[in-house]
Amino acid sequence: MNDRKIRVLIVDDHPVLRDGVAAALSNHDDMVMVGEARNGREAVECFRTLRPDVTLMDLQMPGMNGVEAIATIRSDDPGARIIVLTTYMGDAQVMRALKAGAVGYLLKSGLRTELIDAIRDVHRGQRHVQRDVANEIAMHVVDEALTEREIAILRLVASGQANKQIASKLGLSEETVKGHMKNIFTKLDVADRTHAVTVAARRGIIEL
Questions:
Q1: Please, which residues have CB within 8 angstroms of residue 170's CB and are 6 or more apart in sequence?
Q2: Based on C-alpha coordinates, what's the Rg of the chain?
Q3: Is 35 helix (H, G, I), strand (E, B) or coil?
Q4: 104 CB-side CA count, 13 A
Q5: What is the signed CA dihedral for 104, 80, 15, 27, rounded to 10 degrees?
Q6: 46: Cβ–Cβ under 8 A, 6 or more apart, which residues?
Q7: Residue 6 · residue 34 · CB < 8 Å
Q8: Does position 1 have pLDDT exceeding 70, yes or no?
Q9: What is the average pLDDT across 28-35?
Q10: What is the pLDDT of residue 97?
């Protein structure tokens, strides 16, 4: 019988969250926190040194973000088991993290109720995506994705730029920008620029 503890690395720029995870793990005999990191670069370094069984990864961090860190770790070790632990449930952001190599996605609001089960599931080789997050993905699974050009335009809209300014910055005609905006409105099911930015930010398509 293998009684070896599950070795966990926690990556988050908030010390209170890291302390909370450490306290949660300390109540369970089958797991232990072996290290902590404050950003993506530290996460990569700690992973290479510690080789944890499971890594808990925040997404929004200074410097290298969580998605970049996940991709780097998985390129080093394709078997790395990483659970995203975040406050954000936007479907576009979730899909970026999963495509980068995460095998679990958990909201920080589920820290007390799902964390331990998620760690055990992922350690056994299973996926663990919180139900609310899975529902968010399902809501938009048939939606037509925005193109890179449309996302670039939407980022400029979010920064307060008008169509004429966007056209000048991207080397497009103003009519072309208007056409892209029409497509954006259709894809996001919105009627105006403000709502488009709000929906795109909520879904993780752009960051504000």
A1: 149, 152, 153, 156, 177
A2: 20
A3: strand
A4: 31
A5: 70
A6: 9, 11, 35, 36, 37, 52
A7: no
A8: no
A9: 95
A10: 94
Residue 8 is encoded by which pair of tokens? 């966990």
Q: Are 52 and 21 in contact (CB under 8 A)?
A: no
What's the burial of 60, exposed, middle or buried (CB within 10 Å: 0-12/13-18/19+)? middle
Long-range pairs for 46-52: beta carbons < 8 A, 24 or more residues apart: 46/9, 46/11, 47/9, 47/73, 47/76, 47/77, 47/80, 48/76, 50/7, 50/9, 51/7, 51/77, 52/7, 52/8, 52/9
Predicted model pTM? 0.81
Distance CA 60, CA 13 (A): 9
pLDDT digits (tens, 9 = 90+) for 95-148: 999 999 999 999 998 888 899 999 999 999 999 999 999 998 888 877 888 999
Q: Return the structure tokens found at 126.
A: 């299973």
Residue 105's identity, in one-letter code, is: Y
Residue bearing tokens 């029409």: 182
Cβ atoms of residues 11 and 40 within 8 Å: yes
Q: Check: CB of residue 190 under 8 Å from CB of residue 79.
A: no
The mean per-residue pLDDT over the stretch 146-152 comes to 95
For residue 92, pLDDT over 60 is answered with yes
- 53 φ, ψ (degrees, to nearest 5): -75, -40
